[in-house]
Predict the structure.
Amino acid sequence: GAGVSQSPSNKVTEKGKDVELRCDPISGHTALYWYRQSLGQGLEFLIYFQGNSAPDKSGLPSDRFSAERTGGSVSTLTIQRTQQEDSAVYLCASSLSTGIYGYTFGSGTRLTVV
Amino acid sequence: DQQVKQNSPSLSVQEGRISILNCDYTNSMFDYFLWYKKYPAEGPTFLISISSIKDKNEDGRFTVFLNKSAKHLSLHIVPSQPGDSAVYFCAASANTQGAQKLVFGQGTRLTINP
């Protein structure tokens, strides 16, 4: 597509439930990133996929968080047993293999855990 | 451990004057710096960047200055326009082991007053 598409745009869930957030990157972009922005905070790196390489999961805050990227395209970020501190805007970005120079962000998913 | 810091959460500037947004970093391995602009309910968009081999990069009304010895960079917008009102994020990257993820600051909310 023309841009990075994220769904849903908003998600309200009850504490303890699992959620899945989806990201459709720009066609042809081999690198895909997940970040999150909590209230009053900067963008926090979560995970990075580059081609067929093992993902860099160093930013995932706990083992309740996981992500996969199927077929080198669509990515799903899953949060299990959600907690209130998981409330944030989750942003996905993609880029060509040259990485940081061409980051394009999606509009994000606003997750609210009640 | 906040490697990229934007110490001013907000800045208010009169239309037509210069806006100066500041950013400090601690990791001497960072070799590429970027500024992103974010409107509400949208993803951040790339604004301007600078490599560590330069100390200045200019693009129209936007200029980024890098002071490596002080580990400081700044974004100058002149003249400021109402449409510049947004949150500005400073970001940095170190190409370590092929990883090209960005480290972001907390953001500065810029308001341009007519």
Q: What stands out?
A: Chain A touches chain B at residues 4, 31, 33, 35, 40-45, 48, 50, 56, 59, 91, 93, 99-101, 103-108 (CB under 8 Å).
